[in-house]
Structures are given as C-alpha cells and as structure tokens.
Amino acid sequence: MHKSTKILSTLASLLFLISILLGIIFTCSFNHSFYQYEYDKSNQAEVIGMSDKDLMKATDTLLDYLENKRDDIVVEATVCDTEREVFNERETLHMVDVKNLCMHAKMAAVGMFVASIVLYVLIYLKEKKKAMHVYMSGIRYALLMIVLFVSMLAIYAFCDFYDFWMNFHYLFFDNDLFILDPNTSIMINMFPETFFFDLVMLIMATYVISVCVIYFVLRVLDKKA
Fold it and tell me: Which of 53, 61, 179, 193 has its CA 20 to 30 A from that of 94?
C-alpha cells in the first residue's frame, strides 16, 4: 500500500466520521422526546412557572426556528400567571447566532460526507480488490485520532462542564449574548447546565456506539474480501 493511498484513506475516514458526528449532534439536539424527558426529570415546567404544554410549545418554536421552518422565535405563553412573550431580545439575538452556526454545520456535514464518498470511490478505482483493506487501514488511523480527541473532550466535560461549555461558546461565537440572566431569561431556565451535560453525554455515547457498529461491519466485510 502506497503512503499516499494510506493518507487518502485516512483523510476520507476522518471526513466520514466527522460528518457522522455532526449528524448525530443534529439528531440528538432536535429530538423532541429528549427535551420532554429532561423537562419531566427536573420538573422544569413547575420551576419556570409554565404549563407542560406551553413549555413544549416554546421548545417546538425554538427547534422549528433552528431547522429553518419559521422566521422567528416569537411565541406567547403563561408564565407565573402572566401572559407574555416567552423570549426576550437578548435571547432572540443569540438564537440568530445559533441558527447561523447550525446552518454552517449542516453544510459542513454534507460537504464532508460527499467528499469522503468521492475519496472512497477514487481509492476503489485505484486499488480494486484491495480497496476494503485500504479502507480499514484508513479508518483505524482516523478512529485512533478521533477517539483520542473525543476522549479528551469527554474527560474535560465530565470534570468541569461549566468551563467546557463556556469555552465552546467563546470558540464559536464572537459575542457574549449566550450569557443570560436566570432572573429574567426563560431560555436559560429551560436549558440549565444539567440539560446540556446530559445532551453532550448522549451525543458522545451515541457516537461511540455508532462508530463501533461501523467498524464492526467494515471489519466483517474486510474479512470476506
């Protein structure tokens, strides 16, 4: 196996596995059942002073906005016996940033997935019968790099999630709109730190299981090749 082919296979595998990770992030983040589970677990509706129905209505509004199914996050609900708009101006501006991040991440995921398929096809055309062995070699190197990176992130998040979450925001946002006052912000009370901790752990666990399944399937195919 030429060194250039090995590098190409590793690059293809990295692009493929990262696109899978982004796909899992979106799947978990837009899973309405997960939100309902988290709200029920922490009795979040009562904490905020909203009904379960209104809380899910506000949540659906946010998720629909991020999925580009609506143009704003304007939604009214009864909060502590007062009818009001759920989200304030600062929250609205922050969600504009979040939506832009989501749109760019989706484009990146699709781009990386397509690029990985193109590279895999090129490898197949070059290696023919040895292609599966080349794929396995590349995915082993890619997995090693990703496992090390994800493991470090998981340890960081588990040991000091607040610092992990703040640095994540500083990395992807060029303002501090994500810093919300729990005394005035419904959004920060809908999604406390424990919510995001559970979400990050769900994403990592789902990704690890998915990667293990992919690796097992490829290994079986490699032995049959």
Answer: 53
